[in-house]
Design goal:
This protein is an alpha/beta fold. The protein is built from 16 helices and 12 strands. The structure holds D-xylulose and cobalt (II) ion.
Length: 438
């Protein structure tokens, strides 16, 4: 193990007046809120890729981070060193989960046989760490976008041989996730889309996507994996257009392929905003369609408009999101995965802690605010009043299908209905939300 994190203590709850910045001010993992501990509500996870794989490079310059595991020259020893330091970080943060892509944890390899052997070698080590530390796996995922073979897609690649390689990666990673006791398996289709329609057969690629996803679901049942299969919607980047662009689109595709009861969504705020939606829109859409699964918590930058994957810090937004999550019954297998990276200039070990401490405290504060909102639940009371009348009369018969358009029109005519417009009270409702932000 390197001494990279040696100067930093284990992060503990010290309350809002804590002197140290290396402390939780709000995330008190054992504190009960609405009958569950904060740890149980939030199910927070640290992601492997941003925090341990990225070395700080961007398209204009090389890595700035100088992590010790990136300096190890032998590729397998580098993967081992990274794993050592990753579990030290997980343990010091005292958060319950982590997430990884297959290639995040392995030495780079080329052939299918090498892939199976090297992933297997690392999965054995990860299993030992999980047993020793108690840190658990929220989800695993296969990276079908970084290797040049995937430049034209993973499951939607025009070359069936590439799709076979993708199948191998997904089988191995789903098996690994199952073996490691993971709660979910995620598919983010980074290159499942197109760069130009000029070379793309949309119908063909959509069929490939649907059949591949069905195969993943069939395999889940074959091996007895009890967790959820999750699609992570994103509209574009790196592609011009990604097929699973947002929650509603994903639900449409799932329905087309008969998978709407088998697959849920992993929602990411920065992907929501790229799709032109708010974070809370995507959560409420998933709740409405019955496919809410998990969250990759982060934020974009409102001015520059790409997937900046910054740590979330808008308490109002996250409080409202938390309210919607609690209203829908909270997480089942899902959780909050910090799919967020410190900025390229935040190049110290300490910065990794500040990012995650801030993220955890933000979620904890949002949980407290949302719990308050639920106790009084003025928003629900307003909504209930706004939708009265649908459980009786023509409202009821419209919804249950027993009313035709003719009959509906006759209700208006015969009863001489001249309903007055009723205020939507948006400003009052916004005031209620703001009052909950503490
Ligand atoms: C990319 C993204 C991924 C997925 C996992 O935008 O969010 O990191 O979460 O592949
Ligand atoms: Co993500």
């Amino acid at each position: 193990m390197s001494d990279f994190f040696a100067d930093i203590p284990k992060i503990t709850y010290q309350g809002p007046d804590a002197e140290s910045r290396m402390a939780y001010r709000y995330y008190d993992k054992n504190k009960k809120v609405l009958g569950k501990t904060m740890e149980e509500h939030l199910r927070m996870a640290i992601c492997y890729w941003h925090t341990f794989c990225w070395d700080g490079f961007d398209i204009f310059g090389g890595g700035t981070f100088n992590r010790p595991w990136h300096k190890v020259t032998d590729a397998k020893e580098a993967a081992d060193a990274k794993l050592d330091d990753a579990f030290t970080f997980f343990t010091k943060m005292d958060l319950p989960y982590f997430c990884f892509h297959d290639v995040d944890v392995m030495a780079p390899v080329e052939t299918p046989q090498e892939h199976i052997a090297e992933l297997g070698r690392m999965v054995d080590q990860i299993g030992d760490r999980i047993e020793k530390t108690g840190v658990q796996l929220l989800w695993g995922t296969a990276n079908l976008f970084s290797h040049p073979r995937y430049m034209a897609g993973g499951a939607t690649n025009p070359d069936a041989d590439v799709v076979a390689f993708a199948g191998l990666q997904v089988r191995e990673c789903l098996n690994a996730t199952h073996k490691l006791g993971g709660s979910n398996y995620v598919l983010w289709g980074g290159r499942e889309g197109y760069d130009t329609l000029l070379n793309t057969d949309l119908r063909q690629e959509r069929d490939q996507f649907g059949r591949f996803l069905s195969m993943v679901v069939e395999h889940k049942h074959k091996i007895g994996f009890k967790g959820d299969i999750l699609i992570e919607p994103k509209p574009h980047e790196p592609t011009k257009n990604q097929y699973d662009r947002d929650v509603a689109t994903v639900h449409g595709m799932l329905t087309e392929f008969g998978l709407q009861n088998e697959v849920k969504v992993n929602i990411e705020p920065n992907h929501a905003t790229l799709a032109g939606h708010s974070f809370e829109h995507e959560i409420e859409m998933a709740n409405a369609l019955g496919v809410f699964g998990s969250i990759d918590i982060n934020r974009g930058d409102p001015q520059n408009g790409w997937d900046t994957d910054q740590f979330a810090y808008d308490l109002r937004e996250v409080t409202l999101v938390m309210y919607y999550i609690l209203k829908a019954g909270g997480f089942g297998n899902g959780g909050f995965n910090f799919d967020a990276k410190v900025r390229r200039q935040s190049n110290d070990a300490a910065d990794l802690f500040h990012g995650h401490v801030g993220g955890a405290d933000l979620l904890a504060r949002a949980l407290l605010g949302a719990a308050d909102m639920i106790e009084k639940d003025e928003l629900q009371a307003f909504k209930d009043a706004r939708y009265t009348g649908w459980d009786k009369g023509h409202g009821k018969s419209l919804l249950d299908g027993s009313l035709s358009l003719d009959q509906l029109a006759d209700v208006a005519k015969n009863e001489n209905l001249t309903p007055a417009p009723k205020s939507g009270r948006q400003e009052m409702l916004e005031n209620i939300v703001n009052d909950a932000v503490k």
